[in-house]
Design brief:
- Six copies of one chain form a homohexamer.
- Chain A is an alpha+beta fold.
- The first copy, chain A, has one domain: 6-pyruvoyl tetrahydropterin synthase/QueD (Tetrahydropterin Synthase, Chain A, 2-Layer Sandwich), CATH 3.30.479.10.
- Chain A is built from four helices and five strands.
- Chain A has a five-stranded mixed β-sheet.
- The relative contact order of chain A is 0.19.
- Strand 1 of chain D pairs antiparallel with strand 5 of chain F.
Chain lengths: ~150, ~150, ~150, ~150, ~150, ~150
């Protein structure tokens, strides 16, 4: 028992859970002309939408519990992400369908990681949210670490 | 020179080129009610669309050329796929935007591999088209080998 | 309508669904000495078991349905695999816990693909089971195509 | 020679080596009833064990050596990890077989990264251990950066 | 015992082993001018070489052994591939260093799969070599199934 | 509009772009004997070179732009990396062909990430370069965060 304390006491580990969702979106500023939208956003401004298989990584940090060895129960983390995030984003249109994405904000990966952080951060107790990472393709991903 | 012939003569190798595109789609039968569409297609029937990062594998077969060692120049195969297929599908809406996808056909992976075969097969000479494979997600892919 | 028939009629496409499970096993012939088991199976004969993240690919073939575009509904295929296979294999001991794995048969990937085929093949109608592929690690996988 | 010093002097780079092992484990608190173990750990509490293909990433940091360009010889790092860690964990039972895993500590990924750090950290000289990352599945991984 | 026979008798399973090697090569026909080499092979004709991380998949087929459950011992298959193939190709120059690659043959993936087949096929007994697959990049791979 | 400011104001997100190149290199110190080179660098000292498929990750950080949602236009980041880095490294010999790699510096992944940082850092404005990560194989990668 003394040993367990020695092993875990004051040691901070990080736990990451991966989830996935498939969604449609486009990048489009209403106040701009079609030409300016095409110029800035290229193919991403296609009016008929395009889409991605998004891969989301949520990382929490804290001290592993002496008995369970969990920073946080990975299954409960998964359920939380599914309830609050991926059930709303999966097979959705990110410009139109999601309550926590403002209609006048571009659904870029950079904005999405900030918005997902804002949804999850207040709901995580006992340990701390450390980062949100979101892959839009194999070539592009964004991260947010709560830096204001 | 006799050796080269011995090495390659009458030997059939297969060459595969991978390409990628990101697109939106939905599964929806016009003649059905909303309820029936939801019942059959589930979340894939979301009226506001959803999307995927598609990964396409095109395989050709033939005898490696004695001098170049190519069944087909992989760069030319890539250019052909980009010109005929991915330039039309990338950042597109598969239900609305693509000339070679009939409007009354569901853009499922199964139908897409058949339609892509039909586009590419007549354009490949010197060697033969062997298969079209298309990943819609990490969990689902379809293949077509030209079986009529 | 004539078009739809032309597109799909008599064309055979293949649809693959990936599922995953994590399991323990060991390779051990009861009739052999410990030495012979170690000699033949190496570290795989560890009496205290070891385990793997298995990745399973189930491929069916058939003609895409004219209205749905499905060879088989991928969600129903997933549910079938989960009910019959992965719910029994996930977080299980492949030597001890699984009703359809004979106790005197080594749970090698080669034997597992045959056993999984036998479970699924009678349950697939409208289309045909084509292959079972099972990855034990990134370096080793087995396949079965129903060849007797 | 002055150039080399300018290039490398006081610059800290990070080098990561990936290794893999396959192991069995279960999550189980001896002092709890079977019911409580099932309630807390779910399928991970299966008495007959389950297992995973673990992927381990060990990161060291330091200044690249002016002549070799190495923060640390990656082959020697690999040999160290294999000698001290993966030769003990591969094809092992993490609850029963490993000298550096206390018997009364859950072999969760969070606890494992801390234990692996403790094994390796005293053995790395010339450069510094920066982090241990361990994937249990594609969906779950833990990290430890030596934070006490 | 009768059961074992029923399970395995006359059933053909396929076993695949993955191996990797890193090598340099260039594509260059001696009888051609520099201009023609550049025109046909593009960047692959760089006189100073370029290189790849190659991933090799060797597939054998046969009936799982009634006692071991092996089509072939995957460890022995790995040792064979390492002895005959990857120990010769790893960290080698494919145009200059490898005894079984003719000097006047382009080291394309298509030619390499045929040459690797020729090395391994005579050395596999008890079961049969089914295919050689070689990835040159994530985007290009070749296969050979022994078709003459 | 006030909302947009609240969402983005003073929030730092990270954007990563992946690019790839294939190159040859060897590790070799001119002042050493062949024996010492072999002893220190092993197979990496093969005089006839070897090569890799390198995967490069460039990460920038900054505040997403209120209208575009971009920390930096990922397409422009890609074009910058291709112009300054991968067009020079792809299908090149890292010891001989690249203007920004000093001839007397080993082209290890550790040195390469520092050299790539030095090329890109002065060219990124509006946001900041955060890190360079370079995979030489699936098993080895290096990172540089600008730490002097």
């Amino acid at each position: 028992m003394g040993y367990l304390k020695k092993v875990n006491y004051n040691m901070t580990a990080y736990l990451t859970r991966r989830e996935q969702f498939n969604a449609a979106h486009k990048l489009w500023v209403k106040d701009w002309t079609d030409e300016k939208n095409k110029e800035v956003f290229g193919k991403c401004a296609n009016k008929n939408w395009h889409g991605h298989n998004y891969t989301l990584f949520v990382t929490v940090k804290g001290q592993p519990h002496p008995q369970t060895g969990f920073v946080m129960d990975a299954k409960k983390l998964s359920q939380l992400i599914q309830k609050e995030i991926t059930s709303k984003l999966d097979h959705a249109n990110l410009n139109l369908d999601v309550d926590f994405i403002p209609k006048d904000l571009q659904p870029t990966t950079e904005n999405l990681v900030i918005l997902i952080w804002k949804q999850l951060e207040p709901l995580i107790s006992d340990c701390q949210l450390h980062s949100i990472k979101l892959h839009e393709t194999d070539n592009i991903y964004a991260e947010f670490f709560g830096e204001f």
